[in-house]
Design a protein that fits this description.
By secondary structure, the chain is of the alpha+beta class. It has one domain: Endonuclease/exonuclease/phosphatase (Deoxyribonuclease I, Chain A). The protein is built from six helices and twelve strands. The strands form two sheets. Strands 3-4-2-1-12-11 form a six-stranded mixed β-sheet. β7, α4 and β8 form a beta-alpha-beta unit. The longest helix has 17 residues. The radius of gyration is 20 Å and the shape is globular. 42% of the residues are buried.
């Protein structure tokens, strides 16, 4: 009997993985890194990439959604960032051609369960341009298991068309549908360059989805940084707009910030990174 009580005491002390075990906050980022365009002069990717890595090493998001990264840029980040893996494909062919909406995740914190991609078009299973869009657009998703509490977390990252209004509206509906399917029963984060302010009719499709919230609005005015995310390399105040967003379902926001620090160069990108610290509900 004594030995049995001792064994029970040891088991109670060590325990096992539990779905309601407290976990550390989950930091996430959305960042349009600007595709590697040789016509960008001093702002070309070759002159920005090391500073981008310095920023990411400093902030160390647990999950990062990038937009506009070409295959070589994604490969560079994959090699330069320690402890991350990524999911994603090039939007033009579903392999390596064209821009990625890649998701990088910290492998010390998360284990990938599954991942996939869909195109923002009438034929989402294949690389196609949708509605009145002028570019092929894609969304990448990943389902992760948090090693700290054994809970699953879904993450979608995307980039809406910058011209097509109908495309943005239909794309938002596709994201809302994906929240209901991919994110069924689990907390979820949605990041992206939506090429829309949060009060745009397209994004209302997302914000009016039950239990989905925009993180900036959740935290109020404390420590948000600039009130814009796109500014162009010229930095013209008239061009500034808040079009990069983070949405959540089943999570609460501790903090939100648009990162203005340029880490020693003129600009990290023509967009500013958006960073948030979240916790499970």
């Amino acid at each position: 009997m004594r030995k049995l009580l001792l064994l029970l005491a040891i088991f109670a002390a060590t325990g096992c993985a539990s779905s309601d075990k407290p976990a550390a906050p989950v930091s996430v980022m959305s960042f349009n890194i600007r595709y590697a365009n040789t016509h960008d002069g001093e702002n070309a990717w070759v002159n920005r990439k090391e500073a981008v890595v310095r920023m990411l090493d400093d902030v160390r998001p647990a999950i990062l959604g990038i937009q506009e990264g070409l295959a070589d840029q994604v490969a560079y980040l994959d090699s330069a960032l320690t402890g991350y893996e990524f999911a994603g494909v090039g939007r033009d062919d579903g392999m390596m051609a064209g821009e990625y909406a890649a998701i990088f995740y910290d492998t010390t914190r998360f284990q990938k369960i599954s991942s996939g991609n869909f195109w923002l078009s009438e034929t989402p299973a294949e690389p196609t341009m949708g509605w009145d869009a002028v570019c092929i657009r894609i969304a990448t998703w990943v389902k992760l298991r948090d090693k700290q509490n054994n809970r699953d977390l879904a993450f979608i990252n995307t980039h809406f068309d910058h011209v097509g209004r109908a495309a943005r509206l239909h794309s938002a509906q596709m994201i809302a549908d994906s929240i209901a399917s991919i994110g069924a029963g689990v907390p979820m984060v949605i990041t992206g360059d939506f090429n829309s302010e949060v009060d745009d009719p397209a994004l209302k499709v997302i914000t009016e989805t039950p239990s989905v919230f925009e993180v900036r609005a959740m935290v109020g005015d404390v420590g948000q940084g600039p009130d814009y995310t796109f500014m162009g390399f010229e930095g013209n105040p008239d061009d500034r707009s808040l079009i990069d967003h983070i949405f959540v379902k089943g999570m609460k926001a501790q903090s939100y910030k648009v990162i203005a620090d340029t880490y020693g160069i003129p600009q990290l990108s023509d967009h500013l990174p958006v960073f948030a610290v979240l916790e499970y509900e």
